[in-house]
Design a protein that fits this description.
With about 900 residues, this protein is α+β, with helices and mostly antiparallel strands. It is about 25% helix and about 30% strand. A hairpin with a 2-residue loop joins strand 35 and strand 36. The N terminus is likely disordered.
């Protein structure tokens, strides 16, 4: 009963009730103690404990993500094909968040799967719609009694008016910002109505463009530059166009006296002996009071006292850690993370806490003049890092479909492929907190673009203010991640203005106006925000620095090399033109055959069918794939085989590029191909399709990005082997070089033992081709190189002297197959009496082969783990394969 009295008094008298509690408790204790001191003590303690319970509450969050209704508002002005809908209901459709209007219709079976066949074109009219997201909810006693209650919106995409109980709270205008409004005085105990009215981005953009003094250029050619929403929604040369509206996380945040606004840790000094760390704590307070802070950083406790004023308070505290453990990329060491807890509390009062994972590391972008031009590489904890990885686009067109498990699958695939860097591309999204947390834990660096790509952006004060608010929020959100390596202002805009013919379209005065807008965003505002708030993370204005038609592009900065593909140059171009850092280059292929089956009917499965063309977003894509295929391979007579060979061509080209760039270390110090993943099923430059299935390129990249690379190549009639060692230790290597015919007969054999120095690329072996071949026909033999070390399993590489189309491959003999239950799946053992070139394994159950698209060496048993939940019989019955020998 005494506890109940204490709690009641707290609600009645608020922050001053402690004095009342003391005044009441003391006489109560004195008069009651002589009869039952134990009960009196318990009663008095209960009063204080009630106070502590009440005041120790952290910031409370109530999710509003369930039980929404999504209503099409502007049905009259949209065009819906009668073949795919029977009319949109004005009553709306049930939904939960996060969600987009288009996906809500799909979930409610109003429209078909947007990815299936040619449904994309049929759904185009929906992009002109206005939508209402509406929810009713009750406010419990805790929500009603909170001193402060804010409505918080994440992922409001994009133009929306937000009403609570018919009161306009705010207007959103940026999908990359968090929107917040106080609602404490507007909440009712029951039947609160939250209404969010979304306007069609296209309609809004028309108005903004009509009021603009210039028409801004963009690729794709549209008005998306006015709207701060993901650029890829408007269609790209690897994905569909669905300009929908969406709503992410919606919640009520409650707090009483104060709350933590931001927690930031800066590494001021880092050596093997000690680390000096500066904590920056921002607190929003509605009271004047003294507070105590305790930081538990690993095993160390750091304490201090501060005085709160009303409003934003920023506290700083420096402390030293002895013998710090460093954060490394996974290929250089352990990505160690400290467990950190920050507690801020008023003695006998409110407490708020924040938990973090903090990595200690130094990370620099080194750009120094040298005899060749200027370097461009990253130095982690004093060690030069060759960046190995790919460009990342959003993980699905509809972000609401991306699960935490799929996010981890994509990053884990990158780790298993020996990648240590991913570039988050500027036409997509700032990734989720989970994405960066996983990169921290798994030791993968992140090159982070700001969300600007392939367009000139408005030069006006309102756009700049909106863009700055976005930049401040995102920089502060991501700056504490040890994986964050770089902020890049934009994707290809500098190059586009100077090299793509944009600038000559305009009169001189218009050119100056448009370029001034570029400078305001990318040369002034963004670098200023990063310098002020970014914890020392480097800023790079535009990727690439110059563009492929500028002679400096191979000597300075980063490069996007699209001479292969767009300009149809041969793959040898990659070996002859190597930049300082290759941040984008690529080649298309078709997705996995299972993936093609998922979005087509049998009659659609031809290269030029309307459905396959609808899933090929590059105008010359199919022709270019076939043109390059003819250079290297025999063009197959079936579509299924064409799909398979398209992946081999992609792997051949990008694999050659990766190896050439790594052999050129330290002149070249980065290779990030375009692109790792897909947003939907279709032809693209990805190495994994939208399901996460590995293409041939993903397997090739895993080998080419290995810390120890054994790279055979021919130059000037000499056969050479370069060994690249990205590890921090020297590695003893025994090389065995064999020339074999396709039946496994050894024509030539040699060996060499040497040390691969740490962090180097060195020529290990060289021999005239005539000596190596000893009269053998190049079309009938190959080189098998085996590298044996003390640190890992033997590495095997094959090398062929002529393109696959010119090889006299033998007809496949009987392939011996054995299947056994193994940990995690089924172990498949294969053996053949002849070479099987680029054998591709498949099975009907879902799973992943540990090795695929590989050369099966004659007379040698090879084991491949098929990771799957299927039974041995299910795998065995559906096991299949194809190869170039066919």
């Amino acid at each position: 009963m005494t506890s109940a009295i204490g709690l009641s008094l707290s609600f009645i008298f608020g922050e001053n009730y402690l004095l009342l509690v003391l005044n009441l408790s003391v006489p109560f204790f004195m008069t009651y103690a002589h009869r039952n001191y134990r009960q009196a003590f318990v009663g008095l303690f209960s009063l204080f404990f009630a106070h502590f319970l009440l005041m120790s509450q952290n910031t409370k969050t109530v999710s509003l993500n369930d039980n929404w209704t999504v209503i099409p508002v502007s049905v009259a002005r949209t065009v819906y094909p009668a073949s795919i809908y029977s009319g949109l209901s004005p009553a709306g459709y049930a939904a939960s968040l996060p969600n987009s209007a288009l996906n809500v219709l799909f979930e409610n079976k109003v429209i078909p799967d947007p990815f299936y066949r040619d449904n994309e074109a049929k759904l185009k009219g929906l992009e002109n719609s206005d939508w209402r997201f509406e929810k009713k909810f009750d406010a419990d006693a805790e929500m009603m009694s909170a001193h402060h209650a804010d409505l918080v919106l994440h992922g409001a995409d994009t133009y929306a008016d937000v009403y609570l109980n018919d009161i306009l709270l705010l207007r959103t205008e940026n999908a990359f910002r968090t929107w917040r409004a106080p609602v404490h005085n507007l909440l009712k105990p029951t039947n609160n109505i939250l209404r969010i009215e979304f306007k069609s981005p296209l309609e809004k953009e028309k108005i903004l463009n009509a009021n603009s003094t210039v028409d801004y250029p963009a690729i794709p050619n549209n008005l998306r530059m006015y709207t701060r929403k993901p650029g890829f929604h408007y269609g790209w040369d690897w994905g569909p166009r669905f300009v929908t509206v969406a709503l992410g996380d919606v919640r009520i945040e409650m707090w009483d006296k104060f709350k933590l606004e931001d927690v930031n840790f800066k590494t001021l000094k880092l050596t093997g002996a000690e680390a000096t760390v500066k904590a920056e704590i921002s607190v929003l307070s509605s009271v004047v009071d003294s507070v105590e802070m305790n930081i538990r950083f690993g095993e160390q406790n750091v304490k201090d006292k501060f005085f709160l004023q009303k409003g934003i308070n920023t506290f700083t505290k420096e402390f030293t850690l002895s013998h710090p453990r460093l954060w490394w990329t996974h290929n250089l060491g352990e990505p160690y993370l400290y467990d950190v807890i920050v507690d801020i509390f008023i003695p006998f009062g409110e407490t708020v806490s924040e938990r973090r994972k903090v990595g200690l590391r130094t990370l620099e972008l080194i750009q120094e003049k040298d005899t060749e031009g200027e370097t461009f590489y990253f130095k982690l904890n004093g060690i030069p890092v060759f960046a190995k990885g790919a460009n990342l686009i959003p993980l699905d067109f509809f972000q609401e479909r991306v699960t935490p498990a799929f996010t981890e699958q994509i990053i884990q695939s990158a780790v298993e492929s020996n990648m240590n860097m991913l570039r988050v591309w500027g036409g997509g999204i700032y990734q989720t907190d989970l994405f960066y947390d996983l990169c921290d834990r798994k030791g993968v660096l992140v090159w982070q673009d700001f969300m600007y790509a392939c367009a000139m952006y408005p030069n006006d004060a309102s756009f700049l203010a909106n863009a700055k608010a976005e930049a401040v929020e995102q920089v502060k959100r991501l700056r504490g991640h040890p994986s964050l390596a770089l902020w890049c202002g934009n994707n290809e805009i500098n190059e586009a203005w100077h090299n793509w013919g944009w600038k000559p379209r305009y009169l001189s005065e218009q050119q100056d106006f448009i370029w001034a807008g570029y400078e305001n965003i990318f040369k002034k505002m963004l670098p200023s925000v990063v310098a002020e708030l970014g914890n020392g993370i480097a800023y790079h204005e535009s990727s690439p620095r110059y563009g492929r038609y500028n002679s400096k592009s191979y000597r300075e900065g980063d490069a996007h090399d699209w001479f292969v593909w767009h300009d149809e140059r041969p793959f040898e171009h990659y070996e002859q033109h190597i930049p300082r850092f290759m941040s984008e280059y690529g080649f298309q292929s078709l997705p996995d055959w299972k993936t093609i089956e998922s979005f087509t009917e049998p009659g659609d499965r031809t290269l030029q069918s309307p459905v396959m063309l609808a899933h090929q977003k590059h105008g010359r894509g199919n022709k270019l794939m076939e043109k390059y295929m003819r250079r290297q391979y025999r063009v197959p007579d079936s579509f299924k085989k064409f799909v398979y060979v398209s992946q081999l061509v992609q792997a051949e080209g990008i694999g050659r590029a990766i190896e050439a760039q790594r052999r050129a270390m330290p002149y070249c110090m980065g290779s990030l191909y375009w692109q790792l993943n897909d947003v939907w099923p279709g032809a693209s430059w990805s190495s994994m399709d939208n399901t996460g299935r590995w293409k041939a390129l993903q397997y090739c990249a895993r080998d080419a990005y290995n810390n120890l690379l054994v790279s055979p190549h021919v130059e000037h009639d000499s056969f050479k082997i370069t060994v690249v060692n990205d590890a921090q230790n020297n590695i003893d290597v025994d090389l065995v070089i064999q020339v074999m015919d396709f039946s496994g007969k050894t024509i030539f054999m040699n060996g060499k033992r040497a040390v691969a120095p740490r962090l180097t690329s060195e020529l290990f072996y060289e021999l005239p081709l005539k000596t190596l071949l000893t009269g053998a026909d190049k079309k009938n033999c190959f080189v098998l190189i085996t590298a044996i070390t003390d640190h890992q399993k033997p590495i095997e590489r094959t090398y062929f002297f002529v393109p696959p189309k010119d090889l006299n491959l033998p007809k496949p003999d009987t392939l011996k197959q054995e299947f056994n239950v193994a940990d995690g799946g089924v172990m498949v053992t294969l053996q053949s009496s002849v070479l099987l070139k680029n054998i591709c394994l498949s099975a009907q159950p879902e799973g992943w082969f540990s090795k695929n698209y590989f050369d099966l060496i004659p007379n040698r048993s090879t084991q491949i783990l098929f990771k799957t939940n299927a039974t041995l019989d299910e795998v065995k019955k559906s096991f299949n394969y194809q190869m170039l020998n066919d």
